Structure formats: structure tokens, C-alpha cells
Amino acid sequence: MAGPAKASNGKDGMRIDPALVHELAQLLTDNGLTEIEVEDGDRKIRVQRNLFAGSAAAPAQAAAPAPQPMMAPPMHAEAPVGDVGGESVRSPMVGTAFLSSEPGAAPFVSSGDTVKAGDTLLIVEAMKVMNPITAPRGGVVKQILVENGQPVEFDQPLVLLA
Questions:
Q1: Second label for 64, Cα 20 to 30 Å away, from 48, 75, 99, 153?
Q2: Which domain holds residue 156?
């Protein structure tokens, strides 16, 4: 990704790109993420920020499952107890949610809209890749559970469908 500066860890000859590690750490900070992982052939780099128990994001991190591949299909499950009912469309990755295709554009969907299976509900941006999150089935958007530009965790509910 970035500059030619490389270092070896001395054990197995794996070459580490300090600029790449720095860029991944900056993505954590910029997007309020707790962990990011990149795989390139045999090389795998994971940058993780440990949060203290007093942090608001710590409970979500403690219960988060292992990261999934970037192209994983959206996860779907029944809404948690206390919600207004329906099926929640969940984030297949850690990233940033965007409700429209560009700043100032109309959102893809709003509460009360009728959608068909495959309609784009929102976008989750991860490592500068825009990943459309689509409706798993036709229905009515009951509630949008995230704000535009909000960081999201893996398996976080994004939209509630009836």
C-alpha cells in the first residue's frame, strides 16, 4: 500500500511494512474501530486497540465474534427483545455506515419505505471499499438503527425490516 520502507522481524523472515501498520492504526483512530486485519498472500497483519472496561465501546468488543471476510453476505436475525419486532439486517464487517451514495444525496431508504430483495439499504465502508448492504427479502423498513457516518461493528444491527 505505502512506501518502500520494510523491516524484518528476524525470526521467520516475514517482512513488515511499517507504513502499512501506521496506516491501519490511523484507520482505527479515524473510524473509532477497535481492530482491523489485512491479509495479503501468506502475510497477515492485525492491529488491535485494547479498551479499558470504563470505555463505552468495551462491552461491544468483549462480545464481538472473530472478524469475517470482507465479502461475507449480510447476517440476518430476529430483532432483540425490546425492539418493535421484525428482522434486523446486520453488518457483515467492521466499518463506517453511510445512508446515501454521497454527501448531500438522498438516503437509499427511509423508515416506512417498501423494499424488494436485493435493494440497497445502506453502505458500509471498510478500508476505502464501499460495500452495499442489501435487503435479504422484500418488506417495509421499520427503523434505521445507525446514523450516517457512524462506525459499526461486525454483526451490529443496521436496519429493521417488517
A1: 99
A2: 75-161
